[in-house]
Write the structure tokens for this entry.
Amino acid sequence: MNPEVSVVLVCYEMNREIPRTLRSLAPAYQRDCPTGRIQVILIDNGSAEPPRREEFEYLGLDLTVQSWPEPTRSPVAALNHGLSLAAAPLIGAWIDGARMASPGLIDACIRAARLHPRPVVSTPNYHLGPALQYFSPDSGYDQTEEDRLLESIGWPEDGYRLFEISTSDMRGGDRGPLLESNAFFMTREMWDEHGGFDPAFTGPGGGIANPDAFIRACELPGAQLIRVRGEATFHQYHGGVSTSPRYGAETVLKRGGKEYFRLRRKPLGLVRTPGWLFDSVTGTVDKD
Amino acid sequence: MTGEAASIEASAMKDWIVNYITSVLDIPADPFPLADPFDSYGFDSAELVIMAGVMEEDFGVEIDPRLLFETPSVDGVVETFQKAGLVTA
């Protein structure tokens, strides 16, 4: 069975988070995604103990795991390498591998992508926990509390219950302005045209590389932004650069804005295109 | 804010901010709602922080973005910067 979609993930020191991320992409969890429909490519970016493919055989995933040989503080090169390995006609990029998927995410993205020959499929971003993770540590949120929350909903029993214990990072609702999508999908042809993530973004965590990639995707000639409603990715707390306590996150964004301005000679602006709204439950698309 | 302050006139800073915002949002520069909160016309908190970074790049000073949240309007920010000595009357 040739995969319909490739999902490319990067990880760094995520031994706690990656098993959950991969489980959320597994056939037993993702709706209408039997083994082989999804190709998952995990690139480790310099972890002391990188993940090994054999550790996840029990998930029944079509899984490739590689270690990027020249890791730096930016995941961009590792992510671009992962994109080069993708075999499916539709490819999703997750610069942060610590993101669990809702159970219908992949099928929804496949269905949404079929709506247009040049789709940019964006999915909503959530953080596990009672507040965004650059705020919640101030109130004591940590990995132990996160583990407790996941246990409280019996995860992975019903993956949609992740919405109950998470906080949306989206501004202004389903069609509000977007800084980025932490799991966005395009066709192979569009990724080739797009060029992937810009290696000029060398800051920790890639800085503003993901927003830049998303903006450029939406700016491709003839691209159609299609926002998925009803599914999401959920960030696990792991001390990553952009979800560190509030001042850290603002510093990252401010530095990112500077870096972007130096490279692009224009301000980093949010994507305000309303796009189409694809409802994963009803299968309907709102184009207005 | 920290660092060596540049000699920036309040009117120049005001014009800079308006130019910045109207380059990001599709709203007219004239008349511009100088006293209205940034979010009233859709300029959100993330963009405020991003703007602080570009300010640093253009003016060569370090700006704590949290200051922009204290008085989140064009007039408010210019007044805050005046009180902090970054901007001259």
Chain A has a mean pLDDT of 94. Chain A is about 25% helix and 20% strand. Chain A touches chain B at residues 171-172, 177, 179, 250, 253-258, 260-262, 266-270, 272 (CB under 8 Å). The longest strand of chain A covers residues 5-11.
